[in-house]
Amino acid sequence: MKNKISKLLTMNVGIFMLSVGVYFFKIPNGFSTGGVSGIGTIFGNIFPIFSATQWILLINIVLLAVGFVFLGKQNGIKTVYCSVMYSLLARVFEIVFPLSQPLTREPLMELCYAMLLTGIGSAFIFNAEASSGGTDIIALILKKYTKLDVGKALLCTDFVIAIGSFFVFGVEVGLFSLLGLFAKAFLIDVIIDNLNSYKYFVVITEKPTEIKNYIMLTLHHGVTSNRAIGEFTSSEKIMIHTVCKRIEAIKLKANIKNIDPHAFIIVTTTSEIIGRGFRSV
């Protein structure tokens, strides 16, 4: 239950950040860095019968319907929830905070905020094992009926959308959109890796029992141990292996040194741990 609540909160924070980035920074500047927000921004300019946020909501609903036809239940309830909530929240922002022009006269700064907010928001949503739908669905359909993998299919669809901004908003906005597209792809990967990073400890000690008890009873993590021979001194010690969260690593290092000041500690950062107590496959 605790894990489910954490994922739900993460997902909703991601939806909020994504909506803020799209409405306040991407749409007013015409930044079309891919995704449904990019299509909605372009369509809102070409076909002003609907606003950009209305186009986003409409396109997301259509793509969800297409996804269920071509992909079945693969979309999942989380994708439907994120897609609809993100579209509706952007629409609410439009009603409550109407914008007729960008917030500032600094397009590069606004592009940075647009990419940070949407990149972090998307990473939060992906980390909660969900998706905002949109062009992800197109990518999955292309993967199913062509030889393209999801990553390449998504890049192709987003690239076409970014190129469209050259014809609708001009060269300057088009170049900003392409820059934002490449920045977003890099940023999401970096954020997801950092969200899932853990500390892997290898501890060589003469007091293994106290250290193992602290890890298992206080930090509530598993421990693997084996005997180790120090070839320089020919002395036998115990080598302890464990993984913990970054915030726990500080406590663990301090307690190991209190228990055994002569312990040899190796700490490495890992971007993904799969198994009980961490992440499922």
Summed up:
The chain is built from 10 helices and 4 strands. Helix 5 runs parallel beside helix 8 (171-195) and helix 7 packs antiparallel against helix 8.
Q: Can you give the mean pLDDT?
A: 85
Number of extended strands: 4
The Rg value, from CA coordinates, equals 24 Å
**Total number of helices:** 10
Strand order of the largest sheet: 2-3-1-4
What fraction of residues sit in β-strands? 5-15%
Unreliable sequence segments: none
Main pleated sheet: 4 strands, antiparallel
Based on Cα principal axes, name the global outline.
Answer: elongated
H and E string: HHHHHHHHEHEEHE
Which structural class fits the helix and strand makeup?
Answer: alpha+beta
Portion in helices? 55-70%
- Measured between the Cα atoms of the first and last residue, the distance is 19 Å
